[in-house]
Specification:
Elements (H helix, E strand, L loop, with lengths): L3 E6 L2 H12 L6 E7 L15 E7 L3 H9 L5 H22 L5 E6 L2 E6 L13 H14 L8 E6 L2 H23 L3 E2 L5 H11 L5 E6 L6 E6 L6
Parallel strand pairs: 5-6
Antiparallel strand pairs: 1-3, 2-3, 4-5, 7-9, 8-9
Helix pairs in contact: 5-6
């Protein structure tokens, strides 16, 4: 998809709407620059057909900016330091929680993958993973302590992520079928970026529907709509 296009219309509004249809995005996803305004018409062009030109440029999504910011490859020294930070924290954490200290930590180029394997730790998942994601954010801060680059931490508890992915994929298929049947766009409830990505990935090869994210964190949502017939 092009990042910038020039669109025409009889009015500024029409020119913008034509451009949005070409880019297949909503108005809040672009920056608009008027190149030729309908009000700026010379005496010699008064009989000529009225044409307004606007330039529409796609905004860089917040998710993309965050991804670029986070994905910095870490050195082995940084990874070792991050692991040490996390292990010291978890040792005290499980002691205060009076629960078994059962977990494993794996390295990735961008950070750490931490798995809590004890089913008794399932209470740390919370409603739809809210507690898990909150703890993951804390672990990210802990792991990054004393390190110049941010350490990306992925936390899983008792296999929750795999189960949640399956649930979201089934939801995506069900909502897509409803959109196709009723020909009306559906906006899902707010989700974590990780969960929105699952919805987008599941439906990216669907020939009849498309997905996009709207709103700001933490209320960012996925919209599923018909292709070439976006319903606002």
């Amino acid at each position: 998809m092009e990042n910038s296009i020039i669109s025409e219309g009889k009015t500024t509004k029409e020119a913008i709407e034509n451009g949005l249809k070409i880019l297949k995005v909503s108005a809040n996803e672009v920056n608009v620059k008027v190149l030729e305004n309908e009000e700026k018409r010379s005496f010699f062009s008064i009989l000529a057909p009225r044409v307004v030109k606007v330039e529409l440029t796609l905004k860089e999504s917040k998710e993309k900016k965050e991804k670029v910011k986070k994905e910095i490859e870490l050195t082995q020294e940084e990874l070792n330091k991050a692991k040490e930070n996390v292990e010291n924290f978890l040792k005290e954490f499980f002691k205060k929680e009076n629960s078994s200290e059962i977990y494993n930590i794996e390295f990735s180029n961008l950070g750490l993958k931490i798995n809590f394997d004890n089913e008794e730790q399932s209470y740390l998942i919370g409603y739809r993973g809210e507690t898990l994601y909150a703890l993951q954010n804390i672990l990210t801060l802990i792991a990054s302590k004393g390190i110049n680059n941010r350490v990306r931490v992925i936390l899983d508890i008792a296999g929750y992520r795999e189960k949640r992915q399956k649930t979201l994929e089934e939801l995506a298929d069900k909502i897509a079928n409803t959109v196709i049947k009723n020909r009306k766009a559906i906006t899902l409830e707010p989700m974590q970026a990780y969960e929105r990505k699952i919805i987008h990935s599941r439906l990216q090869t669907n020939e009849r529907v498309e997905t996009r994210s709207i709103g700001e964190e933490p209320r960012r949502r996925v919209v599923i709509s018909l292709k070439n017939n976006r319903i606002k």
